[in-house]
Amino acid sequence: MNTIQRAAVAGLAVVAVAAPAASSVTAVPVYKCASSTKDIDDTSYDGPWPDNWQISVTTCAARSGGTVYAYAEVRWEGASFHPVDDPSIFDGAKLRLQIKQSRQGTDPVVTERDFPGLEDRLEDSTPTRARSGTYRTETLSHPAGPGALADSVLFLDWHGDGRGYRRHDYTGSPTV
Question: Is the pTM of this model over 0.85?
């Protein structure tokens, strides 16, 4: 390197060290949540034991600039007459998380995603056959205008009832 190149490199190094660091701290979005609980009948069972499941869903949304973030958490207390870790309670179970644009009338969905991992968690139990637990979705994000919200729909397909997926709507988040 010649003398001019060394001086230029040294000058750039001084500027880089002396320049104030760009703020890499971003505001953490503040989530607004709503929760509701449903008493859901196991439509595949018609016996003497209690078979209803108490399933709660908390749906949360937050905004950072023009992007809306959403997640949901499911909590349940299920019937305990099934065998331990019975993989045949459901033919399917999933939670659909949606980000919607709040409008007069029906709120249009701007993005949605199904989370089918819920089925395995619902069918899991303790050694004493107690079925309770929680499941939290990944965070969904999408650009949305003012007044967006998150919504959750639980779909359960009970094994052997022949009815396919049954829809259970839960309370959406407040608008963000």
Answer: no
